[in-house]
Design goal:
- The chain is mainly alpha-helical and about 150 residues long.
- The chain has a single domain, classed as Rossmann fold (3-Layer(aba) Sandwich).
- Helix 1 links the parallel strand 1 and strand 2.
- The protein has a three-stranded parallel beta sheet with strand order 1-2-3, with helices on both faces.
């Protein structure tokens, strides 16, 4: 079973907090449901495409920019989307082909990342998270009961 998410289920951009909440939420939901239905032979693949050349951006509703955010990462993302400098390289047809091909794989991949940018950003985020987790190993282990 395919569940469309996006790179936004693994990484975040300022100004997209509601969007990321839905993507991270669906990813957690699918992770749990996949374990629940695995005994019945049902497999899930979370599809995580990067930005694709679709009309997605034309459907965005933009709030009036607040001056206080102009020199922040949120301001940079807003400007990049507005001036077209936010990179969008994904080919929707190629992404659909990859999704359809993934259905024939056994076992099904848990995640299908689509696009060079998505791959690089997700990989960097996972490496960073793993390093942060490893750095707190002693603290994590010390939180166990002493018995």
């Amino acid at each position: 079973m395919l569940q469309l998410s996006s790179e936004g289920g693994q990484i975040t951009y300022p100004n997209f907090s509601y969007y990321h909440a839905t993507k991270w939420g669906i990813e957690g939901f699918v992770e749990a449901v996949a374990q629940e239905v695995a005994p019945f032979g049902i497999e899930f693949t979370l599809v995580e495409p990067g930005p694709a050349r679709t009309s997605f951006g034309s459907g965005l509703i933009h709030a009036t920019p607040l001056t206080v955010y102009e020199a922040t990462p949120a301001g940079a993302v807003r400007r990049g989307i507005g001036d077209g400098s936010f990179t969008v390289n994904g080919d929707p047809a190629k992404m659909v082909d990859a999704m359809l091909h993934s259905v024939d794989q056994s076992p099904a991949p848990r995640r299908l990342t689509l696009g060079r940018g998505a791959y690089a950003k997700i990989r960097a985020a996972l490496v960073e998270r793993l390093a942060a987790l490893d750095a707190q190993q002693a603290v994590a282990f010390a939180a166990e009961a002493d018995d």
